[in-house]
Design a protein that fits this description.
alpha+beta; Glucose Permease (Domain IIA); eleven-stranded mixed sheet; 21% strand; globular
């Protein structure tokens, strides 16, 4: 396999576009608030873990350190992207997250093989410097989708149907995050999970008296493990075409609205819409449902890495 280039690792090409996207990340643009940060943002950094990971070192026990978890008390969408630590609570009740963090960060060396966490279909691959660099979007059926961010190279193409455990990408640290904070920000794969088009935490909050028990989305509970590549049934999500049309109409940016409407395939149109709506939520006046029916949380995902590389996760970094 051809070694990764610096342009791939950091997602720097094409450079003029990346520079414009970097300005949007900091200053904002029409319909997109600028990022917010302050001194509390420094508490995100883990220099020791960062240096080890940049040097390609992994834990002796072959567990992946978690850099950040999903924030269970997220900043309101209308307030824009905040990398501050003002009001944070991860699924355990801890603070391993930041204000707007909506995914799980797996700290892995650049060039790590990323796999499909469940059987699915590739519906989008795109790179936006101000929103997670190179990203790959998978539909797993029954309203469940995952996205892997900060990649260096995709190993599959849009339209491919993939098996659980199949290699889909090589990790990098593409996007503005690494460029701004290198070498103190940890190289990682930012892993998002969407259920019926909305962000969800794949980890389950501990049961509390008088509250419904929340199901984990991991097959192995709160200790997710990888799986070897295997064949399993896959039935694509049933998209609500009318809802997708209404959701596109709710986009306040005419150029983006036209671009979304121009995609002829319903499944790709829906995923492109979800990308825009979830990564740039302030561009939308409303959020109609786009999936037919509603789907309960259920254990379906495995750790998106190879068993030969890792055996599980570590929450103690």
């Amino acid at each position: 396999m051809v070694p990764l280039s610096l342009q791939e690792i950091f997602g720097l090409s094409p450079l003029p576009l990346r520079l414009r996207e970097a300005v949007v990340a900091v200053r904002g643009a029409p319909g997109i608030p600028g990022s917010r940060f302050d001194l509390t943002s420094l508490r995100i950094f883990q220099p020791a873990l960062s240096v080890r990971t940049w040097l390609g070192r992994t834990r002796a026990d072959r567990r992946i350190p978690i850099y950040n978890l999903v924030n269970r008390t997220p900043t309101p969408l209308a307030d824009g992207w905040s990398v501050r630590k003002r009001q944070v609570r991860d699924f355990r009740g801890g603070t391993l997250t930041y204000d707007s963090h909506n995914g799980t960060d797996f700290a892995v060396p650049v060039g790590t093989v990323v796999t499909a966490a469940a059987p699915g279909k590739v519906l989008r691959i795109s790179s936006e410097f101000n929103r997670g660099g190179l990203k790959l979007f998978l539909d797993h059926g029954d309203g469940l989708a995952t996205t892997s961010n900060h990649l260096a190279r995709a190993l599959v193409a849009v339209g491919d149907v993939v098996r659980r455990g199949q290699p889909i990408a090589l990790s990098g640290y593409s996007g503005i995050d690494a460029l701004v904070a290198f070498p103190w920000s940890v190289p990682h794969v930012h892993f998002n999970v969407w259920l019926d088009g909305e962000y969800v935490d794949p980890f389950a909050a501990p049961a509390r008296a008088g509250e419904p028990v929340e199901a984990s989305l991991w097959l192995d509970g709160e200790a997710p493990c990888p799986r070897d590549e295997r064949d399993e049934p896959f039935t694509p999500t049933r998209w609500d075409e009318r809802g997708v049309t209404q959701a596109i109409d709710a986009c306040t940016d005419a150029a983006i609205r036209a671009e979304l409407a121009a995609e002829p395939a319903l499944d790709r149109r829906a995923m492109n819409l979800l990308f825009q709506r979830n990564y740039y939520p302030t561009r939308f006046a409303s959020r109609p449902a786009v999936v037919e029916g509603t789907h309960a949380r259920a254990p379906r995902l495995t750790l998106p890495f190879r068993p030969r590389d890792f055996v599980g996760i570590a929450l103690d970094a």
